[in-house]
Specification:
The chain has 297 residues and is mostly beta strands. Helix content is 4%, strand content 49%. A hairpin with a 5-residue loop joins β7 and β8. The radius of gyration is 19 Å and the shape is globular. The N terminus is likely disordered.
Length: 297
């Protein structure tokens, strides 16, 4: 599922203290500052990435759907003007469309926000839906992502228009290891993701595996997944956790509260490169290239 509302709970109107989500435009899109020694992933957490010769992303495949990075015709050396990221998919009588734009680029070199519009029409089931998500990202002084603010407006064939807002906050330990992600909406904590470390696995190439991001967000926004694993959403946890404990809470129906545990296993080469990792036995391949586009073994 590439995009539905990321929030575990929904309300009919936004709260009065919602933070403004910045709206941008084209940005100078190059290689993010999180990249170590020019090393970039070509496959990570189910995302496959293709690059242009200057290191910018050409396209990325998520769940069999190709997302194209659309740039302005003119460009400076080492960067391009990114207009949008788009994808379309048709399956019988069902059509889907994604468009991310209005990018904000912060002075630290990371993306500060974007807008993602999604639409789906299924003539076979007489169903349609539309959704727009606006994001704002903030970072610590060392470049690690600290908070994600979100505002969503949506409409579908059954419920009509509705809106919601919320945020995810990140907590790290003194050694730079990610410890906790908390999701809140309208003052209610509906999601928590806590990490445990039992082995000293260093994250050599600063890769933001999707186990280091909110589960309910990575399962709902393909563009977020692409930007996270390619390093445009800040520096990742310096250590790789061995376990994550997730909890989901519903304020209206507490009997629907759920918990989940991820047991994380890694295969790491002698040179520190992650070959693959697994979540409860499901394995995800990782591949990397150096600055010369040569695959690292």
């Amino acid at each position: 599922m590439l995009l539905t509302s990321a929030f575990a709970i929904s309300f009919t109107s936004c709260s009065d203290d919602d933070e403004d989500i910045p709206q941008g435009g084209e940005i100078d899109f190059g290689v993010p500052p999180s990249v170590v020694d020019g090393v970039r992933p070509t496959e990570a957490s189910g995302v496959k990435i293709s690059y242009n010769e200057d290191g910018t992303i050409r396209n990325a495949e998520v769940d069999g759907c190709t997302f194209t990075f659309n740039y302005a015709a003119t460009r400076a050396a080492g960067s391009r003007k990114l207009n949008s990221i788009t994808a379309d998919r048709s399956d019988g009588g069902s059509t889907e469309s994604w468009k991310a734009d209005n990018f904000v680029l912060l002075s630290n070199g990371f993306i500060g926000g974007y807008r993602l519009a999604y639409s789906m029409n299924d003539s076979r089931n007489d169903w349609w839906e539309k959704e727009e998500n606006n994001y704002q990202f903030s970072y610590q002084d060392d470049g690690k992502i600290e908070k994600i603010n979100m505002a969503v407006t949506a409409s579908d064939a059954e419920e009509g228009p509705f809106s919601d807002s919320g945020s995810y906050s990140y907590t790290y330990d003194q050694n730079g290891g990610l410890r906790k992600i908390v999701g809140t909406s309208h003052g209610f904590t509906y999601f928590e993701q806590e990490y445990e470390y039992s082995s000293d696995f260093a994250n050599k190439y600063n890769t933001m595996l999707l186990t280091l991001a909110p589960e309910d967000l990575i399962s709902s926004d393909a563009v977020f997944r692409i930007l996270a694993v390619t390093g445009f959403l800040g520096n990742a946890s310096k250590k790789l956790p061995q376990k994550a404990n997730l909890s989901y809470k519903d304020p209206e129906y507490p009997e629907d509260n759920e918990t989940e545990t991820w047991n994380l296993v890694y295969d790491i080469s002698s040179n520190g490169v992650i070959n693959w990792y697994s979540v409860n036995g499901q394995q995800y391949t990782c591949k990397f290239i150096d600055a010369d586009h040569v695959e690292i073994q």
